[in-house]
Structure formats: C-alpha cells, structure tokens
Amino acid sequence: MNKANILFAAAALALPGITSTVAAAGTPGRIGVYARLYDESASREKLQEAMKLIKGAGIDFIFASAKGSTIYWDSQVAPPELVKDRGYMARIVQYAHAEGLKVYPVVCVATEGGEAAPNALLKREPSWSFFYDGARRGYIDPGNPEARRYEVSLISELVSKYDVDGLSLDYCRCPNRVGYTDSGRAEFLKKHNVDLARIAGAGSEALDTEGGKKATNSIAVSARANPIWPEWQKWKTAQINTLTREIRAAVNKAKPGLPISSYVWGYHTYTNRSEVSQDWVTWINEGLLDWINPSGYRYTDASFLEAARLNREHVPKGFPYYITIGVKTSHGSLKDAAEIRKQMTMARQCGADGLVFFTWEALRPFAKELAGDIKAFGREE
C-alpha cells in the first residue's frame, strides 16, 4: 500500500461518523461554488440557465466575484475607473435567489492590482502600497488607517446595497513576499531604530504558497534571517487582525447578523515559510467569522489529506469547517469526476462540514456526473 492509500485509510479509521455542524446559525448550506459568470451575466437567459444548472448540481450557495483589483457592483466609493460592471451584483443576486441559491459576494480585501503593479487607486495613493522586489506593488498597507478605511467602506457599501446572504473574504492578508510598507518602516525606525528598506533587499528564498508549492519569485533570505524579522511579522499580523476586526464591526453596523466567512491558506502558514501574516485562528476565537473555508488546493492524496487534517486540528470543535476543492487553479487541476469525488470523500473523512468548489466554470463539465455525490454530501446517516 502506498503512502497516499495508508493516509486515506488512516483518516477513514480515525474519524468515523463525523457529525455535521452545518445547521449552525450563519452557515449557508453544505456545498458552495465560486462562480464568476461574467459572460452569462450579460444575458438574462444565459444567467437564468446558469443558475438552474448550479442549483441542479446540488449547490446551495455561490461565491460571486465582487472585488478583486476591480469592482463588480454600483460603487460610489471606488474610483470610477475601477468599477467594471455596475449591474453585475444586482443581476447575480436576483437570478440566484430566484433558483433558491444563497449569494456570498467575494471581496479580495487587500489586493489592488496584485503582484504585477498597483491599480489606479494605489497609483493615486502610493503610500498605501506594499514595496517589494524593487517596486511598489498592488497590495494595500494594512498598517495605514486610510487604506483600511477605504477597504472597509467598500465592504460596508456592498452589504448595505444588495440583498446578499453573507460575505466571503479573500486576500485578507499580506503579499507572500519579503517587503515593507511606509507605515511599518516609520514604526520600526521610531521603535527599533531599524530601517526595513535596508534589510529587505538581498538574497533569495522560496516561500510556501497556498497550494503547498514554493513561490518562484526571488525574495530576501537575509531579511528573514535578521533578528528584527519576527517582530515585523508580528506587527504585520496585528495590522491584518485590526483590519479584520474593522470589517466585522462595519458589517455588524451595516447589516446586523450577516454571516462572514473567509478563504484562508491554511494552518501551514503558521508553521512554515510564509509572509502572509494571516492569523485566522484569532479571527475565529474573537468571533470575527461565522465559518471558514481553508484551501484544499492539493493534487496528490497525501498532500490533500495532510492539509485537510492539519486544518481540522486547528479549527475549534463545533466551528463550521469547509474545505475549498480546487478543481482547476494555478497550482494544478483535477482531471475528471473520479478525482473530484475522491477529494470530496477525503474531505468528509477528515471532518469537513461542507465544501466549496473553485470554480463553477471548472466544475461545470463534471456537474451532472457529480450531482448525486454533491447532493448526498453531509447527509449520510
């Protein structure tokens, strides 16, 4: 028996008869899917058909794209040039609800242009951005109160404006790169007499990613070896936690009782080489989230089981734990319905209360074949 099969058997023996907690308040159902639906949303007929197909496949809720580096709702907060489709969210909510699907808009909190370059917002406000690999990049500085206020105001506007069933956070983290921010640099110069810009510059090292692989970009190994670096990590983590608290408070004010979930990389970011500063265990313990869906972007049985079980060990008992299955991602893909079904089985045996598929566009070719499995998930006697 190979290692993967041994782990699979061990999971089955160690975790029999898992009791589902998805009936808990704030959870959206058992199965969700990230659904972009950009092309379909331009046509009422195509959007209605897509929602029928999603519901027919056994899906309970959709994670609809709301904010990445651009905006997909009628925002008066965002710079006009960043608003991609003002009618998108209204159409998604209308047609999803018509088919009995719940809608969780996905907000990629801290990304404003991503790895490549700052978007129009950060070009206007360069002091709000991260600096790494020799340039300002498209991630906000969570230590900058004005940058945080902007992101929080966007979220408040979104949940106030639309009849959404919850909110899903993504990119509520720092970029997985060695770098610094203006606010952090000023703080460390004042408190420690250390210039982060001087130490975040030389050497290279591969960092662990959300999918368990190594980051390909060169980053500064010498900085990570510097005695001040653990303090910088703690400081970044504290700023992200502050941002998450502010999001929770704003949502509570804008739409009391609205559930919040978050996609996170997983517990390996606490234990391995990572710069994301994503302290989701604290978010759970402080009541900032109602449920959580860590990454399951793994493409061998052994790595999937390892990630799923590690996350299960650190999500408090009774707190709804979903696994995000990456049907097709930048880290790999599942080639057929059998491979998807196997990950669903492993997820259940590792204690998952529910699943989220990434994405509907990748799942759709297998949806009819998997509909029975999806509908049965979590309903076992």
Describe what is shown at a glance.
This protein has 15 helices and 14 strands. It is α/β, with parallel strands linked by helices. The chain has one domain: Alpha-Beta Barrel (TIM Barrel).
Q: What's the number of structural domains? A: 1
Order of helices and strands: HEHEHEEHEEHEEHHHHEHHEHEEEHEHH
- Beta-strand fraction estimate: 15-25%
Sheet with most strands: strand arrangement: 10-9-7-3-2-1-14-11
Q: For the record, what CATH class applies?
A: Alpha Beta
**What's the average pLDDT?**
90
The major beta sheet can be summarized as:
8 strands, parallel
Uncertain stretches of 5 or more adjacent residues: 1-24, 202-206, 216-220
Q: How many strands appear in the DSSP assignment? A: 14
Helix content: 40-55%
Judging from the principal axes of the Cα atoms, what is the shape? globular
What is the count of helical runs? 15
CATH topology: TIM Barrel
Structural class: alpha/beta
CATH architecture: Alpha-Beta Barrel
How far apart are the termini? 29 Å
CATH superfamily grouping: Glycosidases
Radius of gyration: 21 Å
